[in-house]
Amino acid sequence: MSQATGTQADVASRFERLLGGDTVIGDPARLQKYSIEGLLPETALLPNSVEQIVAILKVANQENWSIIPFGGGTRQHVGGSPKSVEIVLSAERLNRIETYDPGDLTLSVQAGAIVSSVRAACVQHRQLLPIETFPSSTVGGALATASSGPLRTGFAGLRDFCIGVTFITGDGLSGRGGGRVVKNVAGYDLMKLMIGSFGTLGIITSANFKLFPSPQQTLTCVCQFGTLAEAFKFRDRLLMSPLSPISAELIGPEAAEYLKDIGPRDPDEWAPETGVGSEKRVWQMAVRFAGSDRALARSRSELRSEITREIRAQDEVDFWNRVVNFEQRLTARHHNPMIFQVEVPPAESERALAAAHESASEYNFVSATVGRATVGSFIVGFIPLAIDPPAVTQFAGAASAFRGRLSKDSSAVVLRCPREAKQHFNVWGSTPTDIALMQKVKRSLDPEGILNRGRFLVG
Asked: Strand 162-169 relative to strand 174-178: parallel, antiparallel, unpaired?
């Protein structure tokens, strides 16, 4: 924190007077929970109400103090690396279900609520909130990062079943987008603007969702293919069929072991000339169906001989939890992976994943892929072949080569890579054509640029 605006003690003291001592954390041991890319925040604030968030943001604007919104901490590695972390603002105490109308299939919940807890509350009424994300993810964090998971195949993304949000803009004004009913078309669609904004336009304080009836039962069928082309031919047949899977997950040959409970493989065993030959590459498609016994029997009959194995009951729950946590499972085994969120038109999926494999090999990485095959959304990990960390320019070169092979309608955002490497390339990719409009929106909602300063595409 600059000398012009005050010392850490001054900041903590001011917020203690404003909010109360239990809202302000300055102890280094407790601040560890809120560290970002190894940087300890100078102060963490845990407001107890929306009014306190408003007060915090107004003071931060007056003093030009940078604020980093914090949910469950599962996506704080995404974006540019902050030079320092001044103030972390966590909404963890705003964690209540505000209203729940099972008869209307609608739910209103505060942003600090843990997604898994909200889903559990819906299960009691045989209803489903179709967000599958990391175990400690909050509702606000899922919205800010537009995270939905494998169920996106059957229920679309968060922008489709989130029907309203309330938020506080960067300059401390209360805002609302959408409402509490499904048919709501009044005003500007600020809700969709906030979803995926990574906390740079405002702090989401609550959200309203449209729910779905819980499936009576589910069945996951796993099909195996010798080539990537065969896997996508199956995907195309699936799309043309009368079947309606709720998930259709592509699992690459190198990704399969991260869905099992086995020890990490020696990176040196993955030398391109010995470890990733076409004869050893088996692609899998995990297709999850929901419905009655009769509906599941029809799905099984339609796929017939293409099914390698079926997964049901608790094994099925465990399997999809591992798919959802693929990024974390990969990171837990490797110190220096580079992980992309790849979004492509579905018809270009095969080309994009082939480009990932080719680009990774050129720079001495192995690519490991998991993702939504029918919607063109994939997590692609570039795993270094050597035990020693690659040079930072190696990460930059691999990212550039990969992006250069994608179409203009595709994107490859780097979710994770070593902090040092981020200084050598843009983790968000090339500058979008609408960057000027994004900057205007940022200035309108956060005129002093205090929210997530320097971490997103703008601001």
From this structure: antiparallel
